[in-house]
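Convert to structure. Protein one:
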Amino acid sequence: MTIREIAHIANVSPATISLVLNNKPGVSETKRQEILQLLNELNYSTTQRKKHPKQVRKDLLFLKFIKTGFLVEENAGFISRIMDSIECECSYYNYSLRIQVESKNLEAAIRNIDYASVDGIFVIGTELDTCDYPILEKIQVPYVVIDNSMPNFPCNSITMANEEMVNIAVQHLSTLNPPEIGYIHSLFQAQNFEERARGFRSAVQRFGLQFNAAGMFLLEPTLSGSYSGMKKYLENGAPIPKFLFADNDTLAIGCMKALQEFGYKIPEDIKIVGFDDIYLSATCTPPLTTVHVQRTMIGRYAVLLLNDEITTHNPGNIKIRISSSDLVIRKSTC
C-alpha cells in the first residue's frame, strides 16, 4: 500500500503521513498517534523509512518523462528553460535537485524511486496521456506536474494558459483582415495541443474569421516532420490560406521552409504565427511572430507550489495556469 493510499484512508495529505513515518515535527501528537495506529492496523512497516539518518540532506527530484520525444526533446530548449528556472529557484530555497530521465516505463520508474531521500518531485507532464495519469497516484511524496493542466485528475499542476494565449495570436491575425485563416495542428496528441485547438476555434468565432477543414494541416511536431509533411500537402496541390496559426514554433518553422521551397514568400504571400517563442523563432528566416511563454515563471511557481506542499501539507490540489499578453511580432507577419 502506498503513502498516498494511506493518506486517503486517514483523510490527510501524503506529506503528513511522510512526516509521521520520518518522525518529523509538523503533526499534532493526537493526529500522529492516530496515524501510527492506522499504520499498525494496515501492517505497514514504520521502520522502512528510517534507513537514512536525519542529517542526510534530502533532494527534490525532476522526473523528465519522454514518451516520443517530439515535445520534450525536439522543441528547441523549451523544457530546458523551465528546468534552468527550477534549478535557480531550488538553490534559493536551499533544495538540492537531481534529474532522472525516463523513456520506457513510467510506472517502474516511480515505483523504484528511493522515497527516503526525496522530499518532493517535479514531473514533466508534456507527453503524458490521460491513461498515464493514474500511474502518478503511486508517487509517495508531494509532487507537481509541469506543462500539463491534468484535467479531471487530482494533483498539483502548472502550465501555460493555452486557450487565452492562442486568442492573442488569432487576434493579431484578425487585425490584418484575412479572407480566411488556416491552422497547422500537431499529429501527436497532447493536452496542450488539445487546449490550443479549442482556443483556436473559439477565437475564430470570436473575431468572425473564416476557417474550414481544408485549411487544417496535420503534421508531426518536429522540424523535419513538419517540413516533410507540409511538402506532401504542397505536392498534392493543397490550397494554402494566406494566414496561418501553428500549434508551436517548431511546426511553424518547418512549414515556412517547405512553403519557401515551393516559391511562397513570407510574409508577402503567407503570414504565419507560432506559439512558445523558442530561440529558433528569432533566428529563422524570416523571424517568426509568436506567443511568448513565461517559462521562467512556470519554473519559479512550480518550486513555490511544491515547497508549499512540502512545508504546509496542503490537503487540496492547486492547478496554476500562467498567462502572457506578450505577442512577439516579427517579420513573418509584417
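Protein two, convert as well:
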Amino acid sequence: METLDKAELCFPQLLNTSCRKQTRPQSESMFIYVLLSFISLLTVVLNLLVIVSISHFRQLHTPTNLLLLSLAVSDFLVGFLVMPFQILITEPCWFLGDLVCVLYYVLNIIIVYASLLHMVLISVDRYVAICDPLRYSTKITQNRVRICVLLSWISCVFYSFLFLSDNLKQPGRYNSCYGQCVINVIGAADIVINFILPISTIVILYLRVFVVAVSQARAMRSHITAVKLQSSVTVTVKKSELKAARTLGVVVAVYIVCYCPYYCVSLSGSDLTIGSSTNIFLVFVAYSNSCLNPVIYTFFYPWFRKSVKLIVTLQILQPQSCDTNVMKETAE
C-alpha cells in the first residue's frame, strides 16, 4: 500500500508535502500531446513565413505591414515558447521549479498581451486610413509605427512584472504542495485590462470604420458620372483601403472569437482547475488564434501567397530578391 501511495506522488521522497498525480486515460493524454504539439509547430512555421516575407521584401515595408510583422513575432513566440510550456503544465506534476513556473507566466502575459495591443494598433491604423484618408500618410508613418510597437512591448513587460510582483518576490508561495505551478492573479483586473477595455476599443473603432465605409460606398455610387479618370483612381484607392480594413477586421474578429470562451467562463465565476481538460481546451482555443492569423493572410493577401512561394522555392536566396515585386500580380 505504501509503494502504491508513493507511486501516486509527484515527489515520493516528500510524503507529507508532495502533490498527488492527477492521472488521465493514456489515450486522452496521447491525443492532447499530439494535437497541441501539432498546433504549436504549425504556429511557429506559419508565423515564421510571415516574418520572413515582410522582413525580406522591401515592397512590403509599409506601416500596416510593420504592425503585422510585430504581431507575427508575438504569435511566433506563442507557438515557440508559450505553447510548449503550456503542454508541460498539462502534466500531472510540475518538475521545473517554482521560479521557472513564475517566469513562464511572466513570459506568457508579455507575449499574449502584446498580441492584444497589436490588435488595438491595427484597429487604430484602419480607423485613420478609412476615416481620415487624406492625412493618413502624415499621421501614420513608419517611424511612428516603430515607436508605437516598441512602446507596446515595453508596456507589456512592465505590466507583466507589476501584475505578478507578489509571485516574483516569493515564487511558489501560492502552491499548496510540491509539484504545482500556481500563481495568484486578480481575476477582475485581468479580465478588465486584458479583455473588456481593449476589445471594447477595437469594436468601437471598427463600428466607426464600418459606418464610414458604407457612407463612402454610397458617395462613390452617387458620383459615378464624375470625371472617369479621377473617379477610377479614387475608387481604386478606396477599394484598396476598404479591402485592407475588411481583412484586418477578420483578424480582429477571429481574435475575439478565440479568446471569448476563456474569458466568458471566467466571468461566469466557474472555477477552472489548472491542467483539467476544460482548462486545456479553453487555453488552446485562445492560443490557436496565433496559428489562424497567417491562415487568414493566405486567403486574403495574394502578396503573402506569392511571398511564401518564393520562400519555399528558395528564390529569396538569389541576389536582389528583396526587390521582387510581390504586388505586381495582385494590384487592383
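The CA atoms of residues 214 and 242 lie 10 Å apart. The domain at 2-13+25-323 is CATH 1.20.1070.10 (Rhopdopsin 7-helix transmembrane proteins).
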